[in-house]
Amino acid sequence: MSIQQLGYEFDAYSNLLFVPVGRRYSSIRSIGHKEERAVLSRIQQSVTEELNALDAEQREQLSRFIGSEKAMLPIPVYKQEHIYPMLVRPEMFLWTTHSLQRGLPIDHALFYEKTYSKLSSEQLADHIRHVVRDYVFCAHLQQQERSQWINRIAAAYKKHPFIQLAEAKEPIVNAVETMNRSSLLAVLKFPEDIAFWRHRVEIVMRPYRQIPGSWRWEMCDHAKELTILDETQSILCECPICQFQITYDVNKDEITLPEEPIMERTVKRIATIERQFNEIADQSLNVIGALRELQTIQQKLKPHIPLLEEVLTLQNELEIHDEMEITNCYSAIKEIEIPDESITPELLSLSEVKLMDVAILKEAGKWSNIDFNQAKEQLQLHLAHLLELQAERQPKPGDVIFETNGFQLTRAEAEKVELFTEQTDLTLTFHILSQVLKGEPTNKIRTLQLHESPIFGLLRSWPDKYITKAVKKMLT
Ligand SMILES: [Zn+2]
C-alpha cells in the first residue's frame, strides 16, 4: 500500500499529504483549527520552496516513494482532524508497507522530536529543509531492496583499504599475536628490547583486533540491523551477534570502521613491527642454534618412534621411571612443536615454534651427544628387559590377595569363588555365601544343593569374622 493511498489531500495544501496515525478514519472533511491552519500554511510554503530546490531526478524519486504523481511531504493527523505535533520520519515508509485498515503506528523512534507548532518561522523553515532532505535520501534508498544495500555494504567492506591490508598481512598479524604470547620471549635478547617490542605490538595490533573473527576479511553472515543516518547520507550496518558495526556512505560507496586507521601509518607500522622482531632474533643466535639442534635431534628420533612408543607404554604400565637418555629426550621433544623447514632468526619462522618450557633449550646440547647409531640396539635390549619384568609381574594363582592374622586367600581360591557365583543361577546373599565357604550344611543350603558345590567348605578352617571380611573383599 503506497503512502499516497493511506493519506488525504486538500487543495489548500497541494504539497502536503495528510496521513492518519494511531487510527484511520473513512474520511477527513476538513483539517486543522484556526491556529493549526496558520502552521500548515507555513509548512506548505516551506515545503514548496524546498521541493522546488530539488533537481528533477530527486523530485521523481520522492514522488515514487510517496506513490503520488508529484513530490509531497506526509503530515500526520490524528483524532480525525487534528495535526499530530511531530512530523513522521521517512524511515516509517522505507522498505515496508502499512495496512490501509489502520493508521501509522505511533512509534516515537519513527517521528521527529521537534514540536513544529512551537518553532519560529525560521526554525520551522530549517526543520522542513532537514525533513525534505531526509525524505529525498530515503526515496533514493527505496530504489533498491534492503538486501541489495546489504550486498553493496558487504562489497564496500571488502574493498576497504584496511581490510585489504589485513587480509594480505594475515600471516604476519597472526605471527605477531603468537609470538607476543610465546615462551621464547623469555630467552631472547634483550629484555628491554622485548619490552619495547611488546609495547609497540599493543599499538600496532589495535586496528586488527577491533575486527571480530566472523568479519575477517568479509562481512559476517548474520542478520543485520540498518539505521539510516540522514544527516551524513549514510547507513549504519550493525551485527548484534558480533556486536560490530560499520558505517556506509551512500554517495561515496565506501564504508568506515568504528576506529578508522590512518592507512599510511598502518602500512608502515606492520612492516616495522616485523623488522624490529627480526632484529631481536638476530641478537639471539644462541637460541636459534639450540632450536636447530632440537630440530636435528627430532629428525634423528623419527626412525625410532615405534620402538620408543613401545618402551614408553611399557614403562608407564610398569611404573618405571627410566634413566635412558634417549627416552627422556623423546618424551620431552614430543611435547614441543618445531617446523620442518630450517629455523631462521625471523618472526614467521620463530612463531611456528611452540615450547612448553624453555628449559628444553638447555638440554639440546646434551642430547646432541646421544649415539643414535646405537639407539636401535639399546632400545631393543631395554624393551626385552621390560618384557621380562612384565612377565614376572603377571598375576599367579598362588598370589595372596587377602590376608588377616595368618589366614590367606590366594588368587586361585578367589577366582574359584568368582567363577561359581558367575555360573550359578542362584542369587547368593552375603550370608549364604559365607555359610557355604564355612561349609555349614544347613537345611537351606541342602535344599539349594549348595553343599555339593565346589566352593563348599573352602574356608572351613577360618574363623567366621575373617570369612566375612574375605567375602567383602571378593564382592567388591
Ligand atoms: Zn555477525
Would you write up a description of this structure?
This protein has 476 residues and is α+β, with helices and mostly antiparallel strands. It folds into four domains: 3-141, no CATH class; 146-282; 285-392, no CATH class; 400-475, no CATH class. The chain has helices at 3-6, 34-53, 56-66, 121-141, 146-159, 161-168, 170-180, 191-204, 206-209, 263-282, 285-301, 305-318, 325-334, 347-350, 360-367, 375-392, 411-423, 430-438, 443-447, 464-475; strands at 16-20, 73-78, 82-83, 225-229, 234-239, 244-249, 254-256, 400-404, 407-410. Strand 5 (234-239) and strand 6 form a beta hairpin. The mean pLDDT is 92. Bound molecules: zinc ion (ZN). Zinc ion binds next to loops.
Question: What is the gist of this entry?
Answer:
With 476 residues, the chain is α+β, with helices and mostly antiparallel strands.
Task: List strands and helices in order, with pairings.
Elements: H1 3-6, E1 16-20, H2 34-53, H3 56-66, E2 73-78, E3 82-83, H4 121-141, H5 146-159, H6 161-168, H7 170-180, H8 191-204, H9 206-209, E4 225-229, E5 234-239, E6 244-249, E7 254-256, H10 263-282, H11 285-301, H12 305-318, H13 325-334, H14 347-350, H15 360-367, H16 375-392, E8 400-404, E9 407-410, H17 411-423, H18 430-438, H19 443-447, H20 464-475
Parallel strand pairs: 1-2
Antiparallel strand pairs: 2-3, 4-5, 5-6, 6-7, 8-9
Helix pairs in contact: 2-4, 3-4, 8-10, 11-15, 12-16, 18-20
The structure holds zinc ion (ZN).
Zinc ion (ZN) is lined by residues 214, 220, 222, 239, 241-242.
